[in-house]
Amino acid sequence: MPVLDCPVAKEDWAHEVGEWNGLSMPSAERPAEKPLEDAGPWEPAVQEIVSYQHLDDNWDGYGAEAPSLELLASAIGLAYTFYQTGVPPPHRVAPGVNGSVIFEWQDVDGTYTEVENVRPLYAEVMMIEPGQPAKHWTLPTE
């Protein structure tokens, strides 16, 4: 899985957050989208993350927290950081119940990788390979 081979420097991630956040706040009541730069194969994932700005708390009916705009900008920045380093787009992107954003990859060999952006410029990674114990680490790595 290329995510393992992809060091993520905090300054690179922070740069992408500033460059490509895709979010703006024209009014205090509701954020609105602004045009995004091309994210190549990551475009569907980035658009999905942008759509989460319209979630409210309890979006799942069970008390889930909506991701903050700052967290969404961080997740989009991480997506662009991965795109710039050649990491393939995730198979699924989802909001987490604690206000996070989750990227998931399921490889044909059965390897499962999950990157959960839990706070701005901080993500937890879990990788499960068939027959191996789960591996955990955090981003940024540098």
Q: Can you tell me about this structure?
A:
The protein contains 3 helices and 7 strands. With 142 residues, it is of the alpha+beta class. Strand 1 and strand 2 (32-33) form a beta hairpin. The model is unreliable at 24-34 (pLDDT under 50).
Q: Keywords for this structure?
A:
142 residues, alpha+beta, two-stranded antiparallel ribbon, 7 strands, 25% helix, 24% strand
The parts where pLDDT drops under 50 for at least 5 residues are: 24-34
Strand order of the largest sheet: 3-4-5-6-7
Specify the overall morphology.
globular
Helix percent reads 25-40%
**Structural class, from secondary structure content?**
alpha+beta
Radius of gyration: 15 Å
Major sheet size, sense and barrel closure: 5 strands, antiparallel
What series of H and E elements makes up the topology?
Answer: HEEHHEEEEE
- Helix count, DSSP H or I runs of 4 or more residues: 3
- Portion in strands: 15-25%
> How far apart lie the N and C ends?
19 Å
Topology diagram in text:
Blueprint: H1 10-20, E1 23-24, E2 32-33, H2 43-51, H3 69-84, E3 92-95, E4 101-106, E5 112-119, E6 122-128, E7 135-139
Antiparallel strand pairs: 1-2, 3-4, 4-5, 5-6, 6-7
Helix pairs in contact: 1-3, 2-3
A few lines on this structure:
The protein has 142 residues and is an alpha+beta fold. It has 3 helices and 7 strands, in the order H-E-E-H-H-E-E-E-E-E. The strands form 2 sheets. A 5-stranded antiparallel sheet has the order 3-4-5-6-7.
